[in-house]
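Hi C.,

You asked whether I'd gotten around to modeling the 86-residue construct. I have! Everything is below, sequence then structure, no commentary in between.
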Amino acid sequence: MAAMSLGTGIVYLLSRDIEISAAKKVLTGAGIGYLVMVALMIFHLINNADIGGGKPPVPLMMIFPILAIWSLYAANFCSTEKDPTE
């Protein structure tokens, strides 16, 4: 899990200077990926409820949904137009 998060962070770092349309695609893909990860964490939490090990860490289960919502919000609802008051 940590290696995947590190790899994802490297992709985000390398894609910081791309075009807006491409950045929206990266954020949409990231949001969907985080939602899949949350679903897998819930699946493992339910299936491993009776055994001691193998459960996903609780902080990660709180951080990934926040990152998913944030990524999808930024990709779909943030405007790229300049504010006319500036």
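If it helps when you're writing up: Residues 4 and 10 are 10 Å apart (CA to CA).

Thanks,
B.
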